[in-house]
Specification:
The structure holds two protein chains of two kinds. Chain A is mainly alpha-helical. Chain A contains eleven helices and two strands, in the order H-H-H-H-E-E-H-H-H-H-H-H-H. In chain A, 66% of the residues lie in helices and 1% in strands. The radius of gyration of chain A is 19 Å and the shape is globular. Classes of the chains: A mainly alpha, B mainly beta.
Chain lengths: 285, 598
Amino acid sequence: MSQQLSVPVLPPTAPVQKKPLFRIDNRYIAPAFITCILLAGHLSFGILESYQKTLLAIVTSILLELILGRIFFHKWVHPASAYITGISVGILVRSPAFWPYALCSAISITSKYVLRVKGRHVWNPSNFGISVMLFLAAETVATLSIQWGNYLWPMLIIWALGSVIIWRLRRFHITGIYVVSFIAFAFLRSWMTGSPWQSEIAPITGPMYQLFIFFMITDPKTTVRSTKGQCLVVFLVALVEMVMRLDQIVYAPFYALFIVGPIAMLVEIWLDSRRTNFTKLTVVQ
Amino acid sequence: MKGNQISRICVALFFVALLAAPAVIKRISAGRDADRWKIDAKTALARHGFYLEEVSHAAGINFVHQSPKLDPKLDAIMPEVASMGASVSIVDFDRDGWPDIYVTNSAIGSKNALYRNMHDGTFKDVAEEMGVADVNQPGTGVSMGAVWGDFDNDGYEDLFLIKWGRPELFHNDHGRGFTRVTEQAGLPPRINANTAIWFDYDGDGLLDLFVGGYYSEDIDLWHLTTTRIMPDSFEYAKNGGRKYLFHNLGNGKFEEVSEQVGIDSRRWALASAAADLRGTGHPDLFVSNDYGVSELYFNDGKRFHEVGERTGVGFAPKSGMNTAFGDILNQGRYAVYVSNISEDGILIQGNNLWVPKEGTTGNGIQYQNLARDFGVELGGWSFGAQFGDLNNDGTLDLYLTNGYISLDRHRSYWYDFSKVAGGNSSIIGDAKNWPAFEGRSLSGYQSKKVWLNDGAGKFVDVARAVGVTDTYDGRSVALADLWNRGVLDVVVANQNGPLLLYRNTVAPENHWIEFELEGSTSNRSAIGAAVTLFWNGQQQVQEVSGGSGFAAQNDRRLHFGLGKSPQIQKALIRWPSGKVQTIDNPAADQLHKIKEPV
């Protein structure tokens, strides 16, 4: 499996009247959550190839973000987002070599700055990075989603924590629509191919897949803005994934997001620009 | 503004360079692997110092392995669940001084073969007349491997048959035949195992027997009451067969003592081997498990202590399918080679080469995986591997066989495999949830690896260059100097495929020395005896093994390549009894037969 755990990064907390005893900047909640998952997964299951490889992915990611932010925006960009991209690469990339971790992080972060349309990046960075690595370096990189054990309790923990966070961020509908669509399509595939339905459902029961549905497809920077649009897009991701699965493509969910995500963003940007032009025209008239 | 644009163009170019990087790295690697191309024997001899010629038919061997057919409830995924059983072990069962070959078959009613060395380049199957052929009868299970050891110290190697079903112990009647002594020995009625080794864990001079279960022993694979027989996790499964340690009581009986000596695991064992890894005089036990981490048991002579995680070898779970020891850097220390699965773009576990960390010894020994640094990491769906000096240059090379299921070349099962493998235990653990195989391949038709050691920390694959071009589904590899020529030949057992016999031709300028050890106070097979050879300012240690690789056993004779112009200082023999014997200036290009001094 692949891609990013682009946990939505919240804006800094607003000033409050009464200073609480302990307060954490909202920007650190998501990175802290991902770090906890990483540590829990590694200490209990040994999910990482090695600490060094994950560290390499994180350091590369943050360094590039700082450098490119300086070049493009003339300021030091907050590293929370880059940290999440790095840690996503560290968790999801499986390779015996070191270089894919650095390269994947570098591609992910750089894509954010190079592949922009009207000031918005259209690909989820780590989705882009990992998909590219799978296309171009298949002999060295894989992301099979088996490294968190296949047991019930990690699945329940991630479902519970993920649901709480996504609910709080008001993006649970994205995850919900995707899960319902996936399950419906799984039964359809089972009917079409004759495979046991359990085997078609199986991927979504894997912890890595859960990270995909909670944190990757909900990334605010690379999803459309309207709620209806988000529901439609995530349904289309599931649909494209279903078609790819019929063609036995192992990394179908990520490739589906890789294809559908930017198209949706481009459509939204185009609609925005039409709306702006229309408004300008109305004002002129 | 202009500067900003230049910066952006530079970043865009940097991005393009990043995207091009994998292709560049691939190209560099391709250049490094140029020796994979097939060349003629003469060139191979000049370039690599040896070549291998497949001579099984000329040697009178026409053995083709047949896979088991288990309960019909498993029909949909039969190629996967019945994908093992081809094995080879080397033994001089009649003590005529020439290595013989025993191979297993795995279909109900099929027969195993014992190839007697006829001393003229040919072999003759004498399994039937010796009574060790018809061992796969209905109701008794089928063969998965065989290991040889003289459990009663009468001078003749006895046979333990590893099975899915009823394990069998055969006493060697002075090379004239075999008598089945399973019940007398006290072995259990069913073990679904793929690995076993002979070793004297307590140093009492009697060979004990370790057996590692794969499927649970509760399961009759031909009469299933449930289809929930699969591993409950792809990487953390603990619902496999139990482990057995049969302590030799010396009266033809064995006592099962695994739990009381600290071996208590239900991981899915596929390969095991024992060697004195810490220089304590006691053989430590290394178990490579499928669907999980490897286990390393330190042996204090009475009890075993599992230290896999502490030593570094038992943390990252993979699909362990091989255990082989080799002093690859001529430092007098063993590295451990564990094979795993690598499939481009889907699953890159990489094989493990566990090398002792500098400065760590004894109980504090730590291992680091240097497979990538040494160039022996990617070998496809890897199975059996053995270390041996194939070109007699003085360093241990590595022969690896691979390939899982070769059926339809154009249709792969990998998609369905990865789909289920990532699922919850309730799904993966039930065979009925696995999609039907329908004649598809799963990492089939793979090229083998013959990794040549340059002695400085790099191995180069020369398989095709030296004549290894087969793409059968390899399982088991054994090395032996089959015709007493001072070179290591290679025997490979293939699943559903022919037994291959690669005859080795080595450049004559490279020298060698061999040792055939016989214990007196120690077990007579001398299993566990280690020879450290000192020559030309270097040393190499090798140990007589009671089973290693995957379902395999090399010849008990130890073979050392010496390179050109060897000056041998001494051979230091450390016997399992604790005795240390020194042989000064042993002559090169000879087999030295050495009996343990009383």
